[in-house]
Amino acid sequence: MSKRRGRSFAQLATAAITAAACLAAAAHGQESYPSRLITVVAPITAGTAIDILARLYADKLAKRFGQQVVVANRPGAGGL
After folding, report:
1. Which has the closest alpha carbon to 38: 4, 72, 69?
2. 28-54 confidence digits (pLDDT tens)
3. I want to staple 38 with a disulfide (CB 3.0 to 4.6 A). Which of 15, 53, 63, 69 is the partner?
4. What region does 18 belong to: left with phi over 0, alpha with psi -120 to 50, or beta?
5. Percentage of the chain surpassing pLDDT 70?
6. DSSP secondary-structure letter at 48?
7. How far does the chain reach from its first CA to its final CA, in angstroms?
8. Burial label, 69 (beta-carbon count in 10 A; 0-12, 13-18, 19+)
């Protein structure tokens, strides 16, 4: 009986320590999202319709998040 009691106590202690670690990690103060520059990748060269739409989208994102948004034109970035 004492072996069983010792084993269940060990399991209970392990569960309690795990729960405490998870709660401590969740309670840690985190920065608001996003906390740094946002990059929107346009998979085509600059000056095209997709580039213009990406820049309009970036302006709306910047207003919504209050963070700087940059459009990076990377030809070929849309491929698999």
Report:
1. 69
2. 666 777 788 999 999 888 999 989 999
3. 69
4. alpha
5. 76
6. S
7. 61
8. buried
